[in-house]
Protein: Tautomerase
Amino acid sequence: MPFIQIEMLEGRTVEQKRELVRRITEAVVDVVKCSPEAVKIIIRDMKPENYGEAGVLRADKK
Amino acid sequence: MPFIQIEMLEGRTVEQKRELVRRITEAVVDVVKCSPEAVKIIIRDMKPENYGEAGVLRADKK
Amino acid sequence: MPFIQIEMLEGRTVEQKRELVRRITEAVVDVVKCSPEAVKIIIRDMKPENYGEAGVLRADKK
Amino acid sequence: MPFIQIEMLEGRTVEQKRELVRRITEAVVDVVKCSPEAVKIIIRDMKPENYGEAGVLRADKK
Amino acid sequence: MPFIQIEMLEGRTVEQKRELVRRITEAVVDVVKCSPEAVKIIIRDMKPENYGEAGVLRADKK
Amino acid sequence: MPFIQIEMLEGRTVEQKRELVRRITEAVVDVVKCSPEAVKIIIRDMKPENYGEAGVLRADKK
Structure:
């Protein structure tokens, strides 16, 4: 606790995920005053065919 | 906003996902009176081994 | 199956939720060819202080 | 209803998932007094690069 | 890890939630061979007006 | 896109939520190279009776 779930389009590198986890944990610890160990982060990679915005699949956007 | 997350068994076509996003966005815009751009939809495909109903995996159902 | 989770700002009426569930179920049944009974929909109402966009809380937007 | 979503690291066998669904459904039915058919369980397998704890990716832990 | 999210209709007692957490943790530890401390469970109570099945709000069912 | 869902125990102030949204958006924009407008954050406040760890409700911890 706190738990953080991140949905983002596939294609980000492991290095980006490493940095994202580091930076978000830092922000949560600073603001919420919990221990780093309490912060759990789940990342879910999405295919463009599985994301829709304004009624259109991301896979269909030019 | 609104965000919609859809869990369904894998196997649906991109065409079905395209139509699902179109139809659900249309319904939300009509009822909630928001703009189409505000409606974000995430689809997650599930393997039959990852879905259980009445204590039984879908992968085990005849 | 399919399960649908809808996050939206608080303040919508029960009548809007009733119509949203009806319309989304209809769309899913038409497109995914499942039974209406298979479609489960969860709605979560959000306070403006619990939603952030572009780094700003909705509660802080004029 | 009730719906249960389980996030866990990838690598568990179908047999473990089968047993997990059986045992959790049994627990929910006993405690909440609902029918087994009402209990729906979704399992999501996570890659170690998609899970962070204490600011560190699981993929980076020795 | 594992994380478990439970959506269920409001109205269950704290005693039922206590027992549910105990029983589910026990099941997960037995099957997945993780420590009890690794198992995190979130329960979300739902209003009948926020749950739809077969196109109908639970609040509207007799 | 990206969407971020944060589950944390109730009791944090609006000021903490404001700062959390600001800091997390900043981190995501820096690392994932998306626009601030693309980053959506949902916060869910949890009652201690709705959170279990190691088989015990947080509401029962001394």
User: Anything to note?
Assistant: The longest strand of chain F covers residues 3-9. Chains F and D do not touch (no CB pair under 8 Å).
